[in-house]
Amino acid sequence: MPHQTVLEYRHYRYLKIALLVIVTSIAAYVFQDAPVGRYGGTPVGYALGIAAAAVVFWLMWFGVRKRQYTGSKTTLQGWLSAHVYLGAALIIITTLHAAFQVGWNIHTLAYLLLLIVIASGFFGVYAYLRFPTMQTNNLGDETLNAVLLRIGDLDKEAQRLVMTLPDKFNQAVQQSVQYTLIGGSVRNQLRLKHPDCPTNKAIPILEDQTNKAELNIEQAQTLHALYSVMLRKQKAVVRARRDIRFRAMMQVWLYVHVPLSFCLLAALIAHIISVFFYW
Amino acid sequence: MKLLLARLNRNKQGQVARTDEILESESIPIGRGSDCKLHLPDPRVALHHAVIQKGAADRISIDATQGVIAIDGRSERASLLKTDLLIKLGPYTIIVLPTPDDVDVAISLELTEPLADRTEATIQAQKIASAGLGSTWLSKRRMSWLLAGVVALIFIIWPIWHVVNTDTHIVGEKKLAKITADASWDPGPLDSGHTSFGRDCIRCHQTPFVQVKNETCESCHKSIGWHFALETAAAKQLHTNVFSTDGSEGRCAACHRDHKGKNALKRQDSPLCTDCHRDLKTRHNEVASPNIGDFKKDHPAFKLSMLVAGKTGKDAVIRVSQSDKNKLVEKSNLKFPHDVHLSENNRDGVRSPGGKRAMECKNCHVPDETGTRFKPVTMKEHCQDCHSLEFEPTATSRQVPHGKVDDVIATINEFYAQAAFMGKTIDQPPSKIWRPGDEPRTGPDKNIAWVNQKAKAITTEMMEKRVCFACHEITRVGVGAAQSWHIAPIAVTRHWLPKSRFPHSQHATFSCKKCHDVEKSQTSADIAIPDLASCQSCHSGNVPEQDKAPGSCESCHGFHTGGTRAGVPVVLPKLKDVAITTRSGVFKHPTSTRPAAK
pTM for the full model? Predict the structure, then answer.
């Protein structure tokens, strides 16, 4: 069976369902008998609101479903496909439920939170569809662990080679060995440019002609070998960082998507309570 | 120079193994460089870190060359080697030992800070890298609880606490709170009429989770009426059918949705009416009203409400369509020719005690306080200046009262009786030969006869020839001593189109005669109320037209015009309020058209 993305699942089954829901919602909104205007409190408005709330609760159930590894006849990919398309459909349903009215209140807050959650979800879909390929292109047949191990080996090799070389080279290599950060903090995982990276800084020092001038032939040969080692290390570091960045990018949207989903859940409950408390 | 070097190696248990060797040279350079006599293969050591050499007076010292050395914890350039001296050189620790006999100096050397195992470090890095963002401070669970908690606290718990805790309410305070705990629940601005409630939500939303009740609306809007009068069971049933989905009378809020803007509470759209009225007959066959969908297209001719003199209650008013020309005759029992009075016809004006007076409409028709219609025209204010009720103008300016016939007769009798009593008969009774049986020619009897005769003549003249007769329809009743007159009750219609509202003030830019054609009217039977075509000449229908004022249903008609809901009179007068109960012979204008709320 050819590989199917979550978007293509079962010949776009959930895209079709979502489109049906959207078209039905728009038709109901447009053709409703609206003697006192269109808003969330008309029969159609209530229906849209109930539908939207039901979809939100169901979407959040995905967090539970994805942890259930057994005992289900449905596939997780099917769930995710439905999660994506019905989530996207919520943009239309809730906008019609709100009848394009916004204000400084809990109702619009819930609406905004929903839009942010959906937008972050869109990024997640993009990340999951796009980044694995880019990761493969980046690492080739290697794994991140292999690259990290290789960096360790290159460090050892560099340290061995630099032993006979003047201190400025040694210092640069030591800095590179000790302070080259791969991954770590949120910022370091997500950023691609590391202008302060000691490995990057070491390369120009090794290239510097004035530094070379003091060396004897044997040292010059060692330096050449060291230079080649450091270049390989630099490439490996860039690849490792890029891989870590892809991994982080595929995770980071969830730190918006999930907490704001729960925030939205609270806001949605507040919205429902407030509307019927002051009916 | 001979140097005893004791290399110390510590195993994992901390046990020290010592390897001695003798270094012999002029000076002993220490460093990472392979040319150094004391070779320290550690990257943290400089290529040529320091040198141990014999100086003047055979003193042996250590001098830093490219590196840094710490002597007893202090950074130094050089130092003499004395026993027990502790020298830190990069990761190495050197201690000067007591010098044995066969060497110049003895030192121990130990790598006290070995380089971390890079493999170990790499594994650590791998752990961090593969843990991804999970290894950082970010936590989905913590952030979820925090954000959801904050939202629940601010938008659920706080507002409910505010509602339950009545101490925090602002009821009774004159100053309106700008913000309250439940402000975030407000879906939109209140209608301007309700802004005085401020943020006191429970004024209307009295019971949690229960829709706003009609009684709550009616606690202020006491005089609001039904759409049509619910006087019969059929009417009540019809009202329920039309306005309710649950068998109740229908909710105010079904039409009046607040929180939709400052001016959105009241529907003013034509579909409000035409949705039902354009095919009312199909929807509710029992209704007498015709189908009306548009003022321009299918609005029927206006129906005038005309007073019927002498009748009370429902019979006091008849409704006559303007298309029914034959019936368009006002029977007000008042003689009033507009043409005689208007200066348009009499350029010099009409005769008056002060000379000729030019008269205009506004001399008699004075706008009421609302600018909608006009104050009643009264005899005293508008007529009596010219139409004096003097009955003996040659002798006195005294007038009869504008009231009951009996009072008029009494006034006249009193006047002449008093004159006779005082001997001031105004003219002599006609002389004729007295015969027995005649009234006496002298004495009291003679005067009584004169008074009776005089008063009767004057009264008859007033009732049948001038003064009263000038304006009123009067018939003689009774004979002899019981003879009197009946003045037909005045029934001047003041509100011709009570089912519409026509604000005259909003039409003040036009002259009266544009709509009211009275210049040539010779009799008060003429009706000068403009017809449908006259209104349509300026007003469009539901569809706007170039250079025409809009003509939606709401332009003229109200919705809540069908009688009281809460037992309080509606704002617009009901027809029976307009129809007055007139007393025989008494000129009386209709009573107030705005009954005070009970």
Answer: 0.69
